[in-house]
Amino acid sequence: MKQIQFAVVVVAFASFSFACGGDPLASRSQALEPGDPIGTFEVSGGDKVSEGSITRLVLMTDGTARVELGSSAVIDGFYKKSGSSGEGHLDFVDGTGTVLDSCDYRYDGKTLDVVHGPEGGWQSLEVPVIAFCETPPQCDAQALPHLMCYGLWSCINNGCQFQCHSP
């Protein structure tokens, strides 16, 4: 009985992380268009943050996303984009395709404005100096610019840092 319970936990975890039976990105990833928001976007330091509003949004080229809310809730999963380049709608989904949250957006190449939550007002998120990460591959997946040298991304204190190395 305990082995079966463990297997169920493993399968449940795998279903979120890997969609258990296929590539989770196969049905969720979409071709990126010029003007699509990719990278880390955060509320400016002095801006008022209400409970439930988005404080940080990380959108990666591989279709994964991280949404941090003013209530300290975090959503790690995938995103589905609809709409034209520069504005549209984002659904944040888990590995099974269940929508966990969503927002409308406008993006001008620098600032990402989102409408999220019951209040429905526009909120501006800006690109921070240091992009968020938990692992170095997340830096690559945000298509971050870096020095023109041979090197690798590091994730130090949840921040992307590019380090040049000799080949």
Taking pLDDT < 50 over at least 5 consecutive residues as the criterion, the unreliable ranges are: 1-29
Helix content: 10-25%
Number of strands: 10
Rg on CA atoms, Å: 17 Å
Q: What fraction of residues sit in β-strands? A: 35-45%
Mean pLDDT across every amino acid position: 78
Order of helices and strands: HEEEEEEEEHEE
How many DSSP H or I helices? 2
By secondary-structure content and strand pairing, the structural class works out as mainly beta
As laid out across the biggest beta sheet, the strand order is: 1-2-3-4-5-6-7-8
Largest sheet: 8 strands, antiparallel
Inertia-based shape: globular
- End-to-end gap: 53 Å
Features:
167 residues, mainly beta, 2 helices, 10 strands, 13% helix, globular, disordered N terminus
Q: What's the short story on this structure?
A:
This protein has helices spanning 2-18, 136-140, and strands at 39-42, 54-59, 64-69, 74-82, 87-93, 99-107, 111-115, 122-126, 151-156, 159-164. Helices cover 13% and strands 38% of the residues. A hairpin with a 4-residue loop joins β4 and β5.
Walkthrough of the structure:
With 167 residues, this protein is mostly beta strands. Helix content is 13%, strand content 38%. It contains two helices and ten strands; from the N terminus they run αββββββββαββ. The protein has helices spanning 2-18, 136-140; strands at residues 39-42, 54-59, 64-69, 74-82, 87-93, 99-107, 111-115, 122-126, 151-156, 159-164. The strands form two sheets. Strands 1-2-3-4-5-6-7-8 form an eight-stranded antiparallel sheet, with no helix packed on it. A two-stranded antiparallel sheet has the order 9-10. The N and C termini lie far apart (53 Å). Mean pLDDT is 78; it is low at 1-29.
